[in-house]
Design brief:
The protein is an alpha/beta fold. It has 2 domains: 126 residues, Urease, subunit C, domain 1 (Roll), CATH 2.30.40.10; 257 residues, TIM Barrel. It is built from 16 helices and 16 strands. β11, α9 and β12 form a beta-alpha-beta unit. The longest helix has 17 residues. It is globular. It starts with a strand and ends with a strand. It binds guanine (GUN) and zinc ion. Guanine (GUN) binds next to α2.
Length: 431
C-alpha cells in the first residue's frame, strides 16, 4: 500500500456532472483531502477524516482553497513565445506572427525546449490537463506527448493539418496528414493518460481531399478527439463560404467530411446562425469558449445563453497565444466580463465548473474534474491572500467560497497558485 498524503485546506469541487453548479457543489470550510499513490483516497471535514484515519500525518494549509486541477480545452503550445503580439485581427495575426513562429518547430530540439516551457506555464497557473494544438510538424506533437508522459499528465494533443493557404514551409498534404496523424495515434493515444486529437487547423487551410482523409481517420479510430476552429472571425467566415460554396454553413464543411461528433471540440463559435446552434446541440459537440482570445483579437462576444438553449456543452479555454494569459482563473474573469457586456451574470461556480467537472464530463474523461475518492489526484491549492491588495480584499468582509473564487478570477495570477499536483505529486510549488 502506498503511503498516504493528506492536505488540510478549504476544499471546493463538483462531485457530479450537473446543469446547476450553483447548487451541486461540495464544500468543506475545514477539510482534508487524503491521497494514496496517484489517486484520491478520501475527502471530508477535518473532524471526520481525523476520526477515520487517526494516525494520518497532515500538511496544514488552512486558509488556502483546494480545487480540482484546471482543464484548458483549447490552446496552442507553439504559440507560447508569441503571446501578446500587437495589432492584428485573426487572419493577419496568423500570417504575421503565428506562421513564422510555428515554422521553428521543424526543429525537434526547439519543439522539446518549448514543450517544457509550455508545461511549466500550465502548472504554475494551476492547469493540469490541456487540449493543445501542436504544429504541422510530427515532431512537435511528439515533443509535447513525451514531456507530459514523463509527469503522468492527462493531456490531449495532435499534429496540425493544413495543405492550402499556408506557407509552403508549413504545409503537409492529404496523404502525409493522414499517415503522420495515424502514426501518432498508434504511438501515443491511450499511452498512460495521453489522448490524441485529429487537428485540421480550420476549414480555410485544408483542401476537401485533406478533410476526407482526416474523416477516414475518425472512422478508423473511433475514440480519438477532433479539434478545430469554427466561426471565430467574420472575414474567416466569408472566406470559408468562398472556398466551400456548396456547404450550407461553416459547420457543414466539417459535417460533410465526418469530423463532427461528441468528441469534436470547436474553438470560439462566435458568429453562429440559429440552425448551426441546433446542429451543434444535435451532435453534442463541445465548444471551447475562449474569452481572452476573443477580446484580444477583436473577434466578438460568445453567446453562452444560446449554448444553454441548445444544450451544447461549453468549456473554458485560454487559446494561448491569441489568449493573453495561461491563467484559467483570469480566463474565467474575462468570461464574466464578456457575459456582462451581454447583460448576463456568470456565476463563479459556473465558471469553475466549465474548467473542471464540466470539461471532464464533456470530454468523457472520468478520472479528472472532481475530488471524489478514486479520481486521479490532480488538484491545485490556491492562496486567496497572495499580495497586499488581495489580502485587503479578503479581510474586507466574511468570505464565502464563491466570493473568494470570484476575487481570484479578477485579481489572481501565478502568485495565487500555492501548488499544483498531478497524479499525487507536486509539479509546481510556490517558494
Ligand atoms: N484559427 C486558425 N488558426 C488559429 C489559431 O492559431 N488561433 C486562433 N485563435 N484562431 C485560429
Ligand atoms: Zn485556437
Amino acid at each position: 500500500m502506498a503511503e498516504l498524503k493528506a492536505i488540510r485546506a478549504s476544499i471546493l469541487h463538483f462531485p457530479n456532472s450537473t446543469t446547476s453548479p450553483e447548487q451541486d457543489f461540495e464544500y468543506f470550510a475545514d477539510g482534508i483531502l487524503v491521497i494514496e499513490g496517484e489517486r484520491i483516497k478520501a475527502i471530508g471535514s477535518t473532524a471526520d477524516i481525523q476520526s477515520e484515519f487517526p494516525t494520518l500525518t497532515v500538511q496544514d494549509h488552512s486558509g488556502k482553497l483546494l480545487i480540482p486541477g484546471l482543464i484548458d480545452t483549447h490552446l496552442h503550445f507553439p504559440q507560447t513565445e508569441m503571446i501578446a503580439s500587437y495589432g492584428e485581427q485573426l487572419l493577419e495575426w496568423l500570417q504575421n506572427y503565428t506562421f513564422p513562429t510555428e515554422r521553428k518547430f521543424a526543429n525537434p530540439q526547439y519543439a522539446q525546449f518549448i514543450a517544457d516551457k509550455f508545461l511549466n506555464q500550465l502548472w504554475s497557473n494551476g492547469t493540469t490537463t490541456a487540449l493543445a494544438y501542436a504544429t504541422v510538424h510530427q515532431c512537435s506533437a511528439e515533443s509535447l506527448f513525451s514531456a507530459a508522459y514523463e509527469k503522468n499528465m492527462q493531456l490531449i494533443t495532435g499534429k496540425v493539418c493544413m495543405d492550402r493557404n499556408s506557407p509552403e514551409w508549413l504545409s503537409d498534404t492529404a496523404e502525409s496528414a493522414q499517415k503522420e496523424s495515424a502514426q501518432l495515434i498508434e504511438k501515443w493515444h491511450n499511452k498512460g493518460r495521453l489522448k490524441y486529437a485529429i487537428t485540421p487547423r480550420f476549414a480555410p487551410t485544408s483542401t476537401p481531399e485533406q478533410l476526407t482523409a482526416l474523416g477516414e481517420l475518425v472512422k478508423s479510430y473511433d475514440d480519438v478527439y477532433v479539434q478545430t476552429h469554427l466561426s471565430e472571425n467574420k472575414d474567416e467566415i466569408e472566406w470559408v463560404k468562398a472556398l466551400y460554396p456548396d456547404s450550407r454553413d461553416y459547420l457543414h464543411v466539417y459535417e460533410q467530411y465526418g469530423l463532427v461528433n461528441e468528441r469534436t471540440v470547436f474553438g470560439h463559435c462566435i458568429h453562429l446562425e440559429e440552425h448551426t446552434w441546433e446542429q451543434l446541440g444535435a451532435h453534442q459537440s463541445i465548444i471551447a469558449f475562449c474569452p481572452r482570445s476573443n477580446l484580444f483579437l477583436g473577434s466578438g462576444l460568445f453567446d453562452i445563453e444560446q449554448a444553454q438553449r441548445y444544450k451544447v456543452p461549453v468549456t473554458l479555454a485560454s487559446d494561448v497565444g491569441a489568449g493573453d494569459s495561461f491563467n484559467m482563473l483570469r480566463t474565467q474573469g474575462e468570461a464574466y466580463k464578456v457575459c456582462q457586456l451581454q447583460s448576463i451574470t456568470l456565476h463563479p461556480y459556473k465558471g469553475l465548473y466549465m474548467m473542471t467537472q464540466g470539461s471532464a464530463s464533456a470530454l468523457g474523461l472520468p478520472d479528472i474534474g472532481n475530488l471524489n475518492p478514486g479520481t486521479m489526484a490532480d488538484f491545485v491549492l490556491l492562496n486567496p491572500s497572495f499580495n497586499e491588495l488581495s489580502e485587503l480584499r479578503m479581510q474586507s468582509r466574511e468570505n464565502t467560497p464563491e466570493d473568494t473564487l470570484f476575487a481570484l478570477s479578477m485579481l489572481g495570477d501565478e502568485r495565487s497558485i500555492q501548488s499544483t499536483w498531478i497524479a499525487g505529486q507536486p509539479v509546481y510549488q510556490q517558494n
